[in-house]
Design the sequence.
């Protein structure tokens, strides 16, 4: 009788069961909104790279000397540089170089690293030991030093800088893909596939690879943002595209001598780089969360 009275006292006056707190719904909406914002930023930047003429009518290479070093305005959204070139136009047209470099860097790391990881994880034995020791050597070298070494061998330019950045990510892709292949290879359905007479190649393509690529794709999204930042860093240091190419890192480098009087020359291109990197990182996190929820 006493327990029944206590249970009745805890219920609301109308006898309805207590509802779930509203903040939980807001927490669910929050990540979804940030993912949509990240996707919107990336779609916009991709549109800049594909169709820059839709967003600006200014020539990114030709300027008007009389308009030099003008601040942001309705005519020049990001202001102008010391030669009178429209900075927003240069940022928009520069998206093609930076995004292409990021894609090349991720492709180099993804293809080479995944191939090494799949071979090491699926074959094992001495092959696994040799390949993983090579990966350990790559991991022991600082990324910037390795990038500069590759650029010295290949020469300057956006493509060579992208390849150099991609080489630095090979080890990360190799270790992740190897661990996923080893995990999937030990699962029951893979053992059943081998037990039913499946060949090594067919089992690898049908069962192992499809079930081990999701974390690799999440890493690819993360490395895309990291690659853009690294390529911009190399461009800032003078190892990327030569002037007057409107590459993002080079734009920031060209404006640093006017930072005290013309803040927009470095700040606004830098904000664009930061937004793209953060958006790629958020998209990578969303892919990882979706994989965790499915598992």
Sequence:
């Amino acid at each position: 009788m006493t327990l029944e009275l206590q249970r009745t006292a805890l219920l609301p006056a109308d006898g309805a069961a207590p509802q779930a707190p509203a903040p939980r719904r807001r927490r669910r909406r929050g990540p979804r909104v940030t993912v949509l914002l990240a996707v919107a930023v990336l779609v916009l930047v991709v549109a800049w790279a594909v169709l820059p003429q839709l967003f600006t009518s200014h020539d990114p290479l030709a300027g008007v000397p009389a308009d030099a070093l003008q601040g942001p305005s309705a005519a020049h959204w990001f202001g102008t540089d010391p030669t009178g070139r429209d900075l927003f136009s240069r940022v928009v047209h520069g998206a093609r170089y930076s995004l292409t470099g990021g894609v090349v860097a991720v492709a180099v790391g993804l293809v080479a690293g995944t191939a090494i990881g799949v071979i090491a994880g699926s074959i094992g034995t001495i092959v696994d030991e040799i390949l993983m020791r090579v990966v350990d050597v790559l991991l022991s070298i600082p990324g910037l030093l390795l990038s500069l070494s590759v650029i010295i061998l290949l020469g300057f330019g956006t493509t060579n800088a992208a390849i150099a950045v991609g080489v630095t990510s090979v080890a990360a892709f190799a270790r992740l893909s190897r661990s996923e292949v080893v995990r999937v290879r030990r699962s029951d359905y893979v053992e059943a596939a081998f037990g039913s007479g499946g060949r090594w190649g067919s089992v690898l393509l049908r069962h192992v690879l499809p079930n081990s690529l999701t974390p690799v794709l999440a890493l690819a999204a993360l490395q895309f943002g990291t690659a853009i930042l690294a390529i911009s860093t190399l461009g800032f240091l003078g190892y990327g595209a030569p002037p007057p190419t409107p590459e993002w890192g080079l734009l920031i480098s060209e404006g640093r001598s006017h930072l005290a009087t013309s803040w927009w020359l470095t700040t606004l291109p830098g904000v664009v780089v930061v937004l793209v990197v953060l958006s790629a990182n958020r998209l990578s996190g969303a892919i990882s969360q979706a994989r965790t929820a499915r598992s």
